[in-house]
Design brief:
Largest sheet: 7 strands, mixed
Subcellular location: Cytoplasm
Distance between the termini: 34 Å
Keywords: Cytoplasm, GTP-binding, Nucleotide-binding
Number of helices: 11
Order of helices and strands: HEHEHEHEHEEEHHHHEEHH
Pfam families: MMR_HSR1
Family: Belongs to the TRAFAC class YlqF/YawG GTPase family. MTG1 subfamily.
Strand content: 5-15%
Structural class: alpha/beta
Oligomer: single chain
Shape: elongated
Number of strands: 9
Bound molecules: guanosine-5'-diphosphate
Function: Required for a late step of 50S ribosomal subunit assembly. Has GTPase activity.
Length: about 290
């Protein structure tokens, strides 16, 4: 589901998350492991200020494992508690309860010193659309829950869900935040991975962007998938060669739109292999 974010929606989304924060102990911030920075809300630090936060790199099954490891090391060095999971296939989810316990340890220790037993940790899942919030809630609950509130402003009565993986309760509606799409590069990265809908940006432009990314970051995977001898040329020439190889040709011309759609579909369904479209080094230079 794609949400068109307007200032009013953003303000409302922020208010809703702020309200929910009052009810919980720990924030679970879901991020796409293929885009650990671009898939974060630009104001998440401010919005969740004061609450212990676990960053969860989801969709790690689709991301480049070596880079996921680098991202986790860099974030941990910055004092961030971060884990990597694959919510769709139920992998690594036990780490969420462990992480929440880590974040609550001091508070729980103090309570025990006073002879009080800590109650179950209460958590809220937050993230931009399409990072896997609903999938994660369902996995943690061990059953399918209708997550109707998956739009800012659509509210329903909130309920606590007992997690299967540990003594923990989860708010059944996630906090939805907007992405940093005003930055063009971030917008294209989100579009290439399918986090924002194709009709917001031109499909050929997204495909050309994806090719430029792939030919620099994963040239061998790109060559292997589309039987190309080389990918050194312009992105448009690579796209044309891909279309030709797939037989997407009418009256002697490559059908660029069809080729673009196919390429993006294959990128988003891991046919081109596991990819991560931003590195720690690149991000460091952007934020300096
Ligand atoms: P939400 O908008 O944040 O609630 O995202 P959804 O839970 O609806 O997930 C968006 C899409 O990502 C769905 O097609 C999910 O099946 C898929 N998805 C969610 N988590 C994972 C994951 O860990 N790995 C993979 N490969 N796909 C996932």
């Amino acid at each position: 589901m794609t949400i068109q974010w307007f200032p009013g929606h953003m303000a409302k989304a922020r208010r809703e998350v702020t309200e929910k924060l009052k009810l919980i102990d720990v924030v679970i911030e879901l991020v796409d492991a293929r885009l650990p920075m671009s898939s974060r809300n630009p104001m998440v630090e401010q919005i969740t200020a004061g609450k212990p936060r676990l960053i969860v790199l989801n969709k790690s099954d689709m991301a480049d494992g070596r880079l996921t490891e680098q991202w986790m090391q860099a974030l941990r060095k910055d004092g961030v508690d971060v884990i990597a999971v694959d919510a769709k296939h139920n992998k690594g989810l036990g780490q969420i309860h462990e992480g929440a316990l880590r974040l609550m340890k001091d508070k729980h220790d103090r309570m025990r010193e006073k002879g009080r037993n800590p109650s179950a940790i209460r958590a809220l899942i937050i993230g931009i659309p399409n990072v896997g919030k609903s999938t994660l809630i369902n996995r943690l609950a061990g059953r399918n829950i209708a997550i109707t509130g998956d739009r800012p402003g659509v509210t329903k009565r909130q309920q606590w869900i007992k997690m299967k993986t540990g003594e923990m309760e989860l708010l059944d509606t996630p906090g939805i935040l907007w992405p940093k799409f005003d930055d063009q590069l971030v917008g294209y990265r989100l579009a290439a991975t399918g986090a924002i809908k194709d009709d917001i940006l031109n499909i050929d432009d997204i495909a050309l962007f994806a090719i430029r990314e792939l030919k620099t970051r994963y040239p061998e995977q790109l060559k292997a998938r589309y039987r190309l001898n080389e990918v050194a040329g312009e992105a448009v020439d690579v796209l044309e060669a891909i279309g030709k190889n797939r037989g997407f040709v009418t009256s002697g011309y490559v059908d660029f739109e069809r080729t673009s759609e196919m390429l993006l579909h294959e990128l988003r369904t891991e046919k081109i292999g596991r990819v991560t479209l931003e590195t720690v080094e690149e991000w460091a230079t952007v934020t300096e």
